Amino acid sequence: MKKEFVVKSIDAAPDGAPYVVVSLSSVKDLKDGISSPQNPFGSPKVMGFSNMNDMMKDLNKMLAGAGGGFGMQGGITQLKLEMHEYKELGLAVGDKVFLELTKEESLGI
User: Fold this and answer.
1) DSSP 3-state assignment of 64?
2) In this structure, what DSSP letter does residue 35 have?
C-alpha cells in the first residue's frame, strides 16, 4: 500500500533525544479542507460542570471531540526519525512524501 502525504510540521524530540517528529497530513484531507487551521486544544466549546461526577462522565466526550485526546488533531500521521535519517531526506514543511507499507510474507510457519 502506498499513500501520499504532505509534511505539516517538523518538531524536535520532546525529551531532547536526537530525533525529530515529522507530522504528515494526507493530500486528500488537504484537498477536502479537513486539515484547515483548528484550535490545537480541540473543540472550542466550554463545558460546565455542576459536580465532580458530571465532570468525569463528560471528560471522555470532551477528549474524544479533540480528535483522539489531549489536543491531538485527527488525520495526522507522525513519524519519529533519527537525526541522520532526517538530514539524509532533507525534508521541509510543505514537501510531498510517499509512505509505502508492505507485509512480510511468512511461508512454512
Assistant:
1) helix
2) T
3-state secondary structure (DSSP) of residue 85: helix
- 17-45 residues labelled b (16+ CB within 10 A) or e (exposed): eebbebbbbbbebeeeeebeeeeeebeee
C-alpha cell recorded at residue 94: 510543505
Q: What is the pLDDT of residue 6?
A: 93
Residue 53 has pLDDT above 60, yes or no: yes
Query: Rounded CA gap, 2 and 98, in Å?
Result: 7
**pLDDT digit string, tens, across residues 88-104:** 999 999 999 999 989 88
| Grid coordinates of 109 | 510457519
**Domain segments of the chain: what residues?**
1-35+75-101, 42-71
Report the CATH number of the 1-35+75-101 domain.
2.40.50
